[in-house]
Amino acid sequence: MSEPSTRLPDELRGDVETLWRYHDMHHRLRPSDVGIGLGSHDLGVATRTAELYHQGMFPLIVFTGANAPTTLERFPRGEAVHYREHALRLGVPDDVILMETEARNTGDNITFTRRLLDERDLKVESVILISRPYQQRRAYATCKKLWPGVDVTCASRPLALDEYIESIGDVDRVITMLVGDTQRITVYADKGYAIPQEIPEIVEEAYTRLTKKGFTARLV
Description:
Helices cover 46% and strands 10% of the residues. It is α/β, with parallel strands linked by helices. Strands 3-2-1-4-5 form a 5-stranded parallel sheet, sandwiched between helices.
């Protein structure tokens, strides 16, 4: 079996870059009460969470995530567990990390993290959600729906698209996930899981072309 490619084909670049830019919320980060690392297959989320902690952006971290089919092989003990271990290796003190190990989707991440903080009587007025780059918009919309009173900003590793693809090691996987998250912006708002987000026509057109080219494995 051949190794996955990390080269973004020229004929796909325009559409993929359109979706990539759309999902980046371009938030200006400010110090917040808690940094929440959202579980996924991407260990870069934990890396970025550790970096922001060391920059003084928050005094407390919650890593949240059990497993999904896409993460079970890579993180057999659970996403939050592996994230915590990675952050410890990056010099984050153990006593500033909380773990939430039951969440299996973004809604769970927000709901279960909020419950965890409430159980500890921690007053939280602001959070930074740290996620994969293309998960920012969906995470934001979900948090605004499920935790409307909190001030939320979003962050990811500050990588260019090609750098991110290289870090994941599989261009098809990245495109497929981008397409899937774009669909979820509409589907999850319609189901009441998230607040509605505007989808520009150029984004809809790029999404449609990529689905027609077969990047449909992550559609719901």
